[in-house]
Structure formats: structure tokens, C-alpha cells
Amino acid sequence: MGERSVPDMRQRLRTPIAGLAMVMTGLLAVSCTSGTGPSSSGPAGGGGTSAPATPAPEIKISPVKGASKVRPDKSVVVTASNGELQEVTVQGGGKVLKGEFDAGRTKWISKGPLKPSSDYTVSAKASGSGGPAEVTSSFTTLKPAQELRIADVTPNRKGETVGVGMPIMVTFNQAVGDKKAVEESLEVTAEKPVTGAWRWINDTLAIYRPAKYWPAHQKVKFSARLEGVRAGKSMYGVKNYATTMKIGAAWISTVNTRTHTMVVRKDGKVVQRMPISAGKATTREYTTTNGVHLTMERGNPVTMISPGKKKGDPGYYKEIVNHAVRISNSGEYVHGAPWSVGSQGRANVSHGCINARPDQARFYYDNFHRGDVVKIVGTNRALEWNNGWGFWQLPFKQWKKGSALDG
């Protein structure tokens, strides 16, 4: 057999080891490159994805920009996301609208109604980590189909001083549908506050009286924030109102038809004792009414004609009297009566009025204020609470049941 050559074992072993070293060297090279190159979380421009920027605040306003026919009883609402509201200004109807921020200053809500038929501009500013933001908007309120106004307030005579029993009588130009909403807009504030309440006499007349007589010598302010108040279907208040009345001294007179006397007190002090003659009471019509009256008006002279009778009828009369102060709508006055001086202090001979001596009637007339108190006792005919200004005939508990806010 031929001789075979035997491979050099050193050569056989050297080749795989060298190859392995080359493979390992390659792996190490790849590993080093991966560890020092740009990563997916690296900064922008290095081959990775950048973090999103913080957004600026977003401001939203309601009513929306350009809205028309906006209901005046709706609120203006401004909100901010991604930041806080720094400033909100709403202008329209000739004034700046008030409002309040919430605790986090992310919402602002207006206070009170808007003025009808008016243009409003809203501007709002907000700040946040994404920067400041500012937005402006505008809208228009609707023109009411029916406009509610105050037609009259009694008392409202410039410079007038009134008595401690004087009510505040408010007459509206429209029949009020939502009396609660309207009454909530009415406010009475006194320098010497007392409890009081409104009573709706009908759909157009509301009257305010205190539980007790007004404290004397003070000013009382009445205000109506009617502007924008929804008073009924398609009816809104269009104008605010305010007036002040001056309460003078406490003139309180007491008439006793049984003793035929009238005692006049000013701030508790007797200033006049008057012998009088009251209604002869042969009929209900000729009976003086019993209860708390208020002085309403005066005249000099006043022509008095028997009610429901014409000339020639039994009991007809037509008399001209001087220094007459009205105390009811059923024809009762305190007035001078020279023809009955002999009966004054002794007997009741009138048609229902309080007859007094001419000089004393003039004293009472000269010191007259609307709303002075005249309390009459001794007859069996009660003054009706709605006869003239007989409002004090109702106990206050009953009076305030006529309020739309009672209970």
C-alpha cells in the first residue's frame, strides 16, 4: 500500500480559531456601533421623534360670535382650556356687564340680565404654559315683542315728604305674566330698615308696605332692575328705575266717634285736640268707616255730592267744603264744617266725614302729608283694605301672602 500523508494537526486547528476570531471581532464591532449611535429617543435632528409642543390656551365664548336675537335673560359664558382666564370684559347697552370667575379661573359667567335690543362686545385673555391667548367676539340681543316699563310710582313727587304709613305703589305698562321674576327685580332699602313685603293687587299693580309703620325721619329708596327681566312670553323689561322718598315726622291721629274727638300726635306728642262730628250712621253710606286710614290728598275747596243720587232725590246734597283731607275712596275727608260746630264734640251728624272747626281743619290741612295715619274707632262699619289706601287693615301675615315670593 502506498503511504498516506498525515495532515498537520496544527494547521487544521489554526484555521477554525482564526475564523472564530474574525467572527467575534465582527460582532464586537457591530455591538460598539449600536451603543454609540443615535437612539429613537434622542433629540430632534439626531434621527429620532421629538416631544409634542404644549398647546396655547383655547378660549370659547357663548353666545357665539355673530349671534343675533339673543335672549336677554341668558348668561354670557367664557371658558378656557389649557390655561387660566386672566381678563374678561363684556360691554353693551352703555355699560360694562359684571361677572364672576370660578375657583380655577377656567370659566367666567355674567351676573344679571342683558339689555334688550343692544350690541355686545366680549374680549377675553388667558395664559398658560403654551403661551397667552386673546379672543374677541360680539352678539346682539333681541328686541322684545312686548316691552315692560314702569308707568307710575307713588310717591314720586320731587321734594315731597310723606307719612310713616306711606306704601310704595308701582304701576306697570303691561300685564305682568311672570310676577316672581319681576318682583325679584324690585328692591326697597331704608336708612332705618324694617321688614316689608310686596302684594300684587292685579297684573299691573304691586304695592309695598312694611310690617310696621316706617321709622320717622329717614329716606327710603325704591329701585327696579327691570332691564332684561323676562316678564312673560316675548316680554322683557327695557328700563331700570329708581326713586327716593323722604319719611317725615310720625303724624298719627286717633278719632273716637263715640267721644267725638280727634287727637293729633306728632312723633308721639299731642299737638292738637279737636272736637269732631262723624257720620250720623242712619245708613251704611253715612257711617264713618272704622280702622286704619291713610291721608291721600287734599283740596281747598272740594265739592262733595251725594253718591248715586241726582238733584231732587231724597238725601241728595251738594256742598262745598274747605280744607279737606281725603282718607278713603268712599268719600271720607277730615274737613272744616262751620255749619256743624254746635254738634262737634257732642253728636255725629255728618254724611260720613270727620267734621271739624274751620281753624282746626286748616291746621290739619296745613300739616298734611300723604301717608299720615288716621285711626278711627267706635263704628260698626270696617274700612275695606282696598278702600283708598286702607292697606294697614290687613295683618302683615295676610298682606305678604299676596307676594309672588311668599313661602
Automatic annotation (TrEMBL):
Pathway entry: Cell wall biogenesis; peptidoglycan biosynthesis
Renumbered residue ranges of the record's region Disordered: 33-71
The protein, known as: Ig-like domain-containing protein
Domain of life: Bacteria
PANTHER family xrefs: L,D-TRANSPEPTIDASE (PTHR30582), L,D-TRANSPEPTIDASE YCIB-RELATED (PTHR30582:SF2)
Active-site residue list: H335, C353
Annotated L,D-TPase catalytic domain residues: 251-377
Species for this entry: Sphaerisporangium flaviroseum
Coiled-coil stretches: none
Low complexity composition-biased segments: 33-42
UniProt keyword annotations, A-Z: Acyltransferase, Cell shape, Cell wall biogenesis/degradation, Peptidoglycan synthesis, Transferase
